[in-house]
Predict the structure of Phosphotriesterase.
Amino acid sequence: MTADRTPAVHTVLGPVPPERLGTTNSHDHLFLRSALLPGQELDDPAAAEDELRAFAALGGGAVVQWTPYGLGRRLDDLVELAETTGLHLVAATGLHQAAHYDDPDALRRLDLAALFTAELRDRAGLIKVAGGYHGLDAHARWTMTAAAEAHHATGAPIGVHHELGTGAQDVLELLCDRLGVPPHRVVLGHLNRFPDLGLHRELAASGAYLAFDGPSRANHATDHRLLECLHALADAGHAHRLLLGGDTTTAAARGNPGMPYLLHRLRPRLGPELAALVLTDNPAAAFAW
C-alpha cells in the first residue's frame, strides 16, 4: 500500500471506507467449483442472490468471498450481485490446494505473484491460500511465497485455509517470520475445526486474525465448541482478533443453515459488545488496505 492512500476495503465495485462495511460475513463462498466436490458446484446466481438478500434482511452489510483464482469465482456475477443487493462483496485472488483444480500441473506455468498483484489492482480484495494437514507441502509454500510478494506490492491481506484447522504455526513461520508479512495482515481460517484453546491464544497473541468460519459445515466439529472458543479468546483479551464466517462450500449446504444463521442464531449468543467487534469492527480492520 502506498503511503499516500487511505486504507479501504477493496470490493468488487471499488474501494469502500472501512467504517461503511457494516455487519460482515468474513468468510464464505457464493460461487465455487472444485475437482474434489463433483456435482456440488455453487454456480447459481439466483440462489446466491437469495442468500445475500436473506443475510441483508437481518442487517448484513458485507460478505468476503474466499473463492480464489480458477475455482469458478464468477467475478462478473459478483459485480452484478453487489449492484442489485446493495451489499459490499469482497472477491479473492490466490490459489487453493492443488487437489481442487482439474489441471494442477497447468498452475505451475503461472507467474503467481504477478497474477495475484494484477487481480488485486482490478477487482480482488483478498489473497486466499491454503495449507495442508499439520503442515505445508511444496504447493502451499509456492503459493504463499507468491502471496507474500503480492502483499508487499499492494498491502492486501492474506486469508489462509487450514486443513481441519491445523498448521497455523507453520503458516505464520513462513509468511511472517521468513517472508516478512505483518501478522495483522494474515487471517487464519477454520480454527474452529481444531479447538485447541491454548493454541488459539498463542495465535491471537501473534497479532494475526483468527477466523471461526464453519457453521454450515455439517461434517466437521464446527458449532460444537465455536462459541466456547470465541468467548474464551475474548476473556483472554483477544476479542479484537476474532472474525466469524459461514464458509458454505457445496450446493447441498446452501441455506442449511446458510448465511442468515450467523446473525439469526450466533450473533445473539455472542452478546452485543463481542458481536460488534467480531462482526463489524474487526472485519473493517482486517480487510482494509
